[in-house]
């Protein structure tokens, strides 16, 4: 009886602290960037991620996420990344994971980036 109670208690604790979206979909998304003309630096949160055309891992977050495109001889362009609700988060509700929802919120996994590719036209100076 004691062993069964410990197993049930252990499973309950595990399920209640599971952060489903963070585990199943991660905390980053791969996003493809292209520019016309090619060869622009992609900058996210002050860090250069890649040079177009390219794909970069962008961490999710609940706040507004912006990406800048810089190329010599062209105006810098800033683009807001759009997000949608990540339905995998609903698994926390089904499994009773209030703590998991908090973890998903903290890691940004409540949302996911959509679309997964951006094409930007740069204007010359």
From TrEMBL:
This is PEGA domain-containing protein. Residues 1-21 form the signal peptide. Residues 31-83 form the PEGA domain. It comes from the Bacteria. Keywords: Signal. InterPro entries: PEGA. Pfam families: PEGA.
